[in-house]
């Protein structure tokens, strides 16, 4: 009898560990087919009333928007098909083209830009005698440290590359010229073939104008801007954000290298230390921008937004067009419309607090079986090189905690921490991984 009871207990333990006899739910992320699956906020662990505060703030600028958790639409407003001029949100789409070139082995981030664009920075010819043009790398153009002034045309070089941070359209537009010459084709066609099409963005969802600040063609190839120029709807914006939430993968297809997504959403320590060259008008100033800017993506790595996880990163354009990705909370938020009202004396990120703060505060609990979220970036002052590997702290699902309790290991299963420090493995992947 005792033997039978022991055998029964052992079998029960095996069944529990393997999940047999336990109701199972899908653990993988949802995908749009063609629209996003819908869920109530409560079904994915969000408080609807708190979430509505963010939506109501967004609507002070009109427009459209949506909030996704675990790939399910939990709140939306406005017309999801209306096209909006996204302005500088275009920069993050441009960063994606750079990611393709890295993945294809056509460029490395620290390649001199002049290698691909011999006429870099010219006109005006006054930049040539400084010797600075040879020092500009693709990485500098993508981190706003190349030295070009704000306008998107053939502007001045304001400082020695790599010594300051200055928000510019001209630098990203030179990056666009470099990649156009690398691929010898229209970047609009490249992106529809390699990114937009595969993730379900059609030509009625997104339009990319020719360069409005430089001749419309270079070497007979249409010239696009990275500084601005894309108009898109919320449906397209949310898909683009979801691609980055899933670390460059769309279903079973790798669109971008995961390691490039990591670099794009993180601030490199050497950039975070740079002084910011501010524009003369106080309302246009960027504050500590160098400490929370990746590869043409904004982020919260330095914790400027105290109520938002440090792993949050986003596109951001004039009129407050936003595509926000928060891996630790498995959230994607897209919003476009008119600009929100700025408060006198508020910091550069101040206008985002009433929108992102309530969304993060709405998180009440984890879903029973959330999909595995992306690792959170380390603090920006971590001594490791920014090209190094990522931390691998991941949220423990309810199922993982169940199994750990059976094994007596509940104390060592990490729960999600919004702003904690994360460990680095010793192996450092290449940018093209």
Write up what this structure looks like.
The chain has eleven helices and 13 strands. It is α+β, with helices and mostly antiparallel strands. It has a single domain, classed as Beta-lactamase (3-Layer(aba) Sandwich). A six-stranded antiparallel sheet has the order 2-1-13-12-11-10, sandwiched between helices. It has a three-stranded antiparallel sheet with strand order 3-7-4. Helix 2 packs antiparallel against helix 10.
Mean pLDDT: 83
Percentage beta strand: 5-15%
Given the helix and strand composition, which structural class is it? alpha+beta
Question: What's the β-strand tally?
Answer: 13
Largest sheet: 6 strands, antiparallel
The level of helicity is 25-40%
Query: Using only CA atoms, what is the Rg?
Result: 23 Å
- For the record, the CATH class is Alpha Beta
Number of helices: 11
Briefly, what is this?
It is built from 11 helices and 13 strands. It has 433 residues and is an alpha+beta fold.
Task: Explain the layout of strands and helices.
Blueprint lengths: L1 H17 L29 H11 L5 E6 L2 E6 L6 E2 L4 H14 L34 H6 L26 H14 L3 H10 L9 E3 L8 E2 L2 E2 L7 E3 L1 H12 L3 E2 L2 E2 L3 H7 L4 H4 L25 E2 L13 E5 L3 E6 L4 E6 L16 H9 L36 H9 L27
Helix pairs in contact: 2-10, 3-5
Summary keywords:
single chain; 433 residues; alpha+beta; Beta-lactamase; six-stranded antiparallel sheet; three-stranded antiparallel sheet; 11 helices; 13 strands; 11% strand; globular; disordered C terminus
């Amino acid at each position: 009898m005792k033997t039978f009871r022991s055998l029964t207990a052992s079998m029960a333990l095996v069944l529990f560990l393997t999940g047999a006899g336990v109701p199972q739910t899908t653990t993988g992320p949802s995908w749009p087919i063609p629209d996003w699956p819908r869920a109530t906020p409560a079904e994915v662990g969000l408080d609807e009333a708190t979430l509505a505060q963010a939506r109501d703030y967004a609507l002070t600028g009109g427009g459209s928007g949506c909030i996704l958790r675990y790939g399910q639409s939990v709140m939306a407003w406005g017309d999801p098909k209306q096209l909006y001029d996204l302005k500088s949100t275009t920069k993050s789409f441009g960063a994606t083209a750079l990611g393709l070139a890295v993945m294809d082995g056509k460029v490395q981030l620290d390649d001199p830009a002049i290698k691909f664009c011999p006429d870099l920075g010219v006109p005006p010819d006054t930049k040539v005698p400084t010797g600075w043009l040879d020092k500009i790398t693709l990485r500098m153009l993508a981190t706003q440290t190349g030295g070009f002034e704000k306008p998107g045309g053939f502007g001045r070089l304001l400082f020695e590359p790599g010594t300051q941070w200055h928000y510019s359209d001209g630098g990203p537009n030179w990056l666009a010229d470099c990649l156009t010459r690398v691929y010898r084709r229209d970047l609009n066609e490249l992106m529809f073939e390699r990114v937009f099409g595969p993730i379900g963005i059609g030509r009625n969802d997104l339009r990319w104008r020719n360069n409005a600040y430089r001749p419309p063609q270079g070497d007979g190839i249409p010239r696009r801007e990275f500084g601005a120029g894309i108009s898109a709807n919320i449906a397209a914006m949310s898909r683009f954000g979801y691609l980055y939430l899933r670390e460059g993968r769309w279903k079973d297809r790798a669109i971008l290298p995961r390691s490039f997504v990591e670099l794009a959403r993180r601030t490199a320590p050497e950039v975070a230390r740079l002084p910011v060259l501010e524009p003369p008008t106080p309302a246009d100033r960027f504050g500590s921008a160098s400490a929370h800017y990746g590869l043409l993506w904004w982020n919260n790595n330095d914790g400027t937004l105290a109520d938002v996880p440090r792993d949050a990163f986003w596109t951001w354009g004039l009129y407050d067009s936003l595509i926000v990705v928060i891996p630790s909370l498995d959230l994607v938020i897209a919003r476009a419309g008119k600009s929100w009202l700025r408060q006198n004396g508020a910091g550069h990120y101040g206008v985002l607090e009433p929108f992102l703060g309530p969304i993060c505060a709405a998180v009440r609990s984890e879903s029973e079986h959330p999909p595995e979220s992306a690792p959170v970036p380390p603090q920006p002052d971590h001594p490791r090189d920014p090209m190094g590997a990522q931390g691998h702290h991941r949220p423990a699902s309810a199922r993982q905690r169940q199994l750990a309790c059976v094994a007596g290991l509940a104390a060592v299963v990490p729960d999600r921490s919004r702003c904690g420090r994360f460990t680095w493995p010793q192996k450092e992947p290449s940018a093209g991984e």
